[in-house]
Hints:
By secondary structure, the protein is an all-alpha fold. It is 76% helix and 0% strand. It is built from seven helices and no strands.
Amino acid sequence: MSKTYTDSCLEGYLHEQLPHATMVELEQALRSSTELRDRLAEIITRHDLGSHTIGSLWRQERLSCPERTELQNYLLGILDEDVEDWVRFHVETLGCRYCAASLEDLQSTAARDAKESETRRQRYFETSVGRLSQSK
Length: 136
């Protein structure tokens, strides 16, 4: 049994806004289904002619994406529970690739900053050890 894809899903494919697994699955389906390729071509034509749906504008402008500061607060665990649930749903269930990439970037930046901070603290400690013993 083949899966039925909505126009919204096909638009998400065009804009590379679907989770990776769904993109791969849909691409394989497009290779084997003339009907699906025809629907995709029709969506491309409508898009090129300037025909946009509310859903497509919502996705293109990423209106449901949390701001980067909210993603940072999510990583710190300081969001209200309902906002935290929304961010988790948005990234994990909806599979927003933009927000997942932002979260990954924030995590790597935080890890790098933590390492630099630890190195700096260690240097301060090492340079002040001699001074502390001299002050006695």
